[in-house]
Specification:
alpha+beta, 2 domains, 4-stranded mixed beta sheet, 6 helices
């Protein structure tokens, strides 16, 4: 019986033939690069000698303009962290910058701020960051005795005002906890187990002087009006750590 000849292919050639057999679609697509500004300028400003000095951020479909904001303020926006979650050199709170950046067509405000501005800052200031979880003194937002005293809502009915002794918000309990973190001396973490969104308006004494004048403290208002309370605990908090950042940005 005649023998059948066998052809042995080198391993590298087998891989190449396999790729050709299945076609280019078998290869994983490279990850898409984050969207970036077409062109952007960053200039440090020194408001100390300017007298009155306005700051802020304006956005339109073609241009992002940042005026006199500190890196600290911008980091809270682009990384979506609260002040207690950010570990960084102290000078980022005092160094202020003007930024003008041209936006490519077809990008939302959310993408401009959370992706494009973040990418710009990371590149120009040569930033290196990482996230980690630390167990810190915090308050757990929990149900008070008697349970929740407010009902869920699907529509916002407030005016969106805020002040040292006034809070208005529409959102879930995690948003309530985040907003309370700005009013007390440590982070607040939602541990109520309550689902849904709520319209909440609170007026309370922002300090001891107002308490002495008869205004109720925040803890009293939380319990009597909302059926919530703050319990001191040590809780895991996610942190953003800036490992490296240059004091001056690279050239425009």
């Amino acid at each position: 019986m005649p023998r059948t000849a066998k052809t042995v292919l080198p391993a590298g050639l087998i891989v190449m033939v396999s790729c050709l057999a299945f076609g280019p679609s078998a290869l994983p697509a490279p990850p898409a690069a984050p969207a970036e500004f077409e062109v952007a300028t960053i200039k440090e400003v020194h408001p100390e000698g300017f007298g009155s000095f306005s700051t802020g951020m304006t956005f339109d479909p073609a241009m992002l303009r940042v005026k006199g904001l500190s890196l600290y303020e911008m980091f809270l926006t682009v990384y979506k962290v609260r002040p207690y979650q950010l570990t960084a050199p102290g000078w980022i709170q005092s160094a202020r910058f003007d930024i003008t950046a041209k936006i490519p067509k077809g990008h939302s405000q959310e993408e401009v701020l959370s992706v494009m501005l973040r990418t710009l800052l990371e590149k120009r200031f040569q930033m290196k960051t990482h996230r980690e979880t630390r167990v810190l003194p915090a308050y757990a937002l929990v149900l008070a005795r008697g349970g929740l005293k407010i009902q869920p809502s699907t529509t916002w009915s407030g005016a969106g005002q805020a002040g040292s002794g006034h809070m208005e918000m529409f959102g879930d309990m995690s948003l309530v906890a985040a907003s309370l973190s700005d009013k007390v001396d440590r982070p607040v973490v939602d541990q109520t187990g309550v689902k849904g969104t709520f319209n909440i308006t609170l007026d309370f004494a922002p300090d001891e002087e107002h308490e002495a004048a008869g205004m109720p403290p925040l803890r009293t208002v939380l319990e009597e009006k909302l059926g919530l309370k703050l319990e001191p605990r040590r809780l895991p908090i996610e942190m953003l750590v800036i490992d490296h950042i240059e004091r001056k940005p690279t050239e425009n």
